[in-house]
Write a structure and sequence with these properties.
Two copies of one chain form a homodimer. By secondary structure, chain A is an alpha+beta fold. Chain A has helices at residues 11-19, 22-26, 38-49, 76-79, 99-113, 128-136, and strands spanning 2-5, 53-59, 63-72, 81-90, 116-124, 140-149. Chain A has a single domain, classed as 3-Layer(aba) Sandwich (Aminopeptidase). Chain A is 36% helix and 33% strand.
């Protein structure tokens, strides 16, 4: 099992991980198009070119988990950098085997490497299991996560 | 009143806005040092150099409000860009005059200019007035905002 930045060849597998999710389905993004579209490739290129964004995969023979890390500088808390974790997914047939925990351990190492003093994420209020998972890692649900779709 | 990206000269005023806040005080960041320290200048330079981060101020003769906007590409939702709003502050003596609303209108315009399809923020669960403010703008508190201090 390796944890590494995603390459172009990983994109279709990542899209399948993102789509295989009840909440993604409820938002109308439950089906992966046969061919990756231009907007998605552009998003991959933008992430890949940005030193403050890392798209991560966990892979053995296949890609089985993913997350995206964003590193943000800020003036708050004495000029602290923060790391935001988005789009965390573990393949359905590989859950409950500690893989999510290993993925988060990799992410925390990246936060330390980058000198971050805060790690943050938002998780849909319906994902009760996810809340328990993150709380066990030390996250505190201190904030409301508010979203506006344009 | 103008809304614009912050310059170096605005940093001390922004730090005062960030510090004059009960929750910042409770975290130990309620006092602004007489001289801006190196870590804070480095954070300002990092924001200023990053096309995906914008530190915004509202100013007439003085800086009276601020927020930070982060633009993040992602593979979810068809390759949608998202805008994250952090560190929103309006100076205490200028609140309840519609300034926060104008600042958010400026932020929304930036989201549209950048082609974002989601705008997101987290707000401390103790900031009840802020929740009402954002809900009136169309934000939905659909997520838990989880934080881990390293």
């Amino acid at each position: 099992m390796t944890f590494r930045p995603a390459g172009r060849a990983d994109v279709p597998a990542i899209l399948h991980l993102l789509a295989d999710d009840d909440i993604a389905r409820s938002r109308g993004f439950g089906v992966v198009p046969e061919e990756v579209d231009a907007a998605t490739w552009a998003a991959f290129e933008a992430i890949d070119a940005d030193p403050n964004n890392e798209l991560i995969v966990a892979a053995d023979d296949e890609v089985i988990a993913t997350c995206q890390l964003t590193f943000t500088p800020g003036l708050s808390r004495g000029g602290a950098w923060r790391m935001t974790i988005e789009a965390v997914r573990v393949r359905a047939d590989r859950r409950s085997a500690g893989l999510g925990k290993k993925l988060m351990a990799y992410a925390m190492d990246r936060a330390l490497d980058r000198g971050c003093r805060i790690v943050q994420l938002t998780t849909d209020k319906r994902r009760i299991d996810a809340h328990r998972f993150y709380e066990a890692l030390g996250f505190v649900a201190s904030h409301e996560g508010m979203k506006l779709t344009l």
